[in-house]
Structure prediction request, 426 residues.
Amino acid sequence: MSSIQHTKKIALVDCNSFYVSCERLFNPKIRKKPVVVLSNNDGCIVSRSNEAKALGIKMGEPYFKAKDIIIKNNVQVFSSGYSLYGDISRRVMRTLKRFNSDMEVYSIDEAFLDLSNFPDDEIEDVGKEIRSTVLQWTGIPTSIGIAKTKTLSKVANHIAKKKESGVTSLVGVKNIDPILEKVEINDVWGVGRQLTKFYHQNGIYNAKQLKNISNTWIKKSSNVLSSRTAMELRGITCIGLEKSVSKRKSCVVSRSFGQRVEKFQELKEAIANYCLNASEKIRSESLIAKSITIFIRTSPFQNKFGYYSNSKTIDFPIATNNSIEIVKTALSALESIFKNGYRYQKAGVLLTGLSNDDGKKNLFSSEKDEKINSLMRSIDNTNYKYGRSAISLASAGVQRRWNMKREHSSRIDTADFYCLPTIRAI
DNA sequence: TCTGGGGTCCTAGGACCC
DNA sequence: TCTGGGGTCCTAGGACCC
Prediction:
C-alpha cells in the first residue's frame, strides 16, 4: 500500500489588491505608497493597497468621505481602467491554467484550482510554486488557500492573506475547530449582512459554531444555501468546480451619471447608448434576448428633490440581438415611465431570457432581416477596429453630458494600441 | 456637491389548471 | 350557499458574490 495521500484538494488563488496591483505594474513610483482605485464615476473606493488599509480607508467607502484622509496622507488615487484589469486578469488565468486545467475562473481576480492529483504532503510547496510563478510571469502578487472544499479554501485564503508566505493549507489538519473558531461568521463565504444578523440573533458568532450546528435547524430556519455552507465547513463538498464557462442568462448595462440628468432627450441618449453596448455584448457571444427591462432612478441618498424609481419590461415579439430593435423598444419603455421634474442619477438596461442565436431563420424572418444582420456585423467590426462608438446610431447623441466622471485615470491600457509607451531618444 | 456595476440563485406568492 | 387539494409556472424581490 502506498503511503502517498491524494485527498480532495481545492486551491483558491486570489490576487492581492488586484486593481491597485495592476496600476503598480506600470508605475513603480507608487509601489510602497498608499494607493486606492475608485469605482465607475469616481464614486467609491473599490481597491486599496495595504498601506491604504492601514490608514483606515474602508472597502466600498464613498470617495468624498475618505477625501480628508487621502489628502492628508498623500494617497495616490486612480479611476478604474477595466480594460487594463481585464487584460492582466487573462494573463494571470493563463498562467494558473498551466498548473491544472481543472480550474474555475471565479471572478476577475480569483480562481479555484483542483489540485487533488498532487500528494497531500507536497501541497503547500505546490502552492508556493504557483504563487512565485504568477508573480514572476505577470507581476501580480497573490494569496493561496488550499483545503477540501471551496468554502474551506476561502477560509484558508483568508488566513493566507495575513501571512508572509501567502500560502495556507488546511489539508491534513486533524482538528479544524480551533482554526474556525477564529473566523468571524461574517467572514464566511456565503454569509452576508442579513445572515450575519440572523446568526448573531441565534448566538452564532464564528465559523466553528456554524459548522457544528444541526443541519435540520439551519434548513428549517434559513435555507438550502446556508446548509450547504455549513456542510462545506465540515469538509463535505456541496459546491462543485464549474470548469466550463456557462453561457450567461442576462446582460446588464447601467451607469450613474456624471451630472444629474433632467431632460427626457438626454435620458434617451443614455439609454440608447446602453442598448448599443448591451446588444453588441450579446452579439459577440452569439446570444439573443427574449425581453428587455429598462430602469431609471433618482439618487437614493438625496431626497430633497423627491425620490423616483421605476422600471418597465417588454418582451420582444421574437428573441433578438438587433441593436435597432433593442433601442426602439427601450425608448418606448422609457417613454412610459419617464416623469418630468426629477433629477435622475442612474439608468440602465437589462437583457434577459438569453439563449443561443443558432442563426436559423424563423417563420417571420425575411431578406430585410438578413440585411440588418449583416449591418450589425459590420458595425461590430468597425467598432472593434477603430474603437467603441466609432459608429453608432443617431439616437445615441453626441453631447454626452451624462458621461461618467473619470478624473484620475492612469490612461494605461495594455489592450489599446494608442496607449503604447513612446520611447524618445535623447 | 460628491455614494459602482454586473452577475446568480432562491423563495414566496399569485395565476391558472384539474 | 357552501367550498378541496394539489400541481405547475411565472415573476418580483431579496440575498449573496466579486
Observations:
- Chain A has a mean pLDDT of 90.
- The CA atoms of residues 290 and 319 of chain A lie 4 Å apart.
- The radius of gyration of chain A is 25 Å.
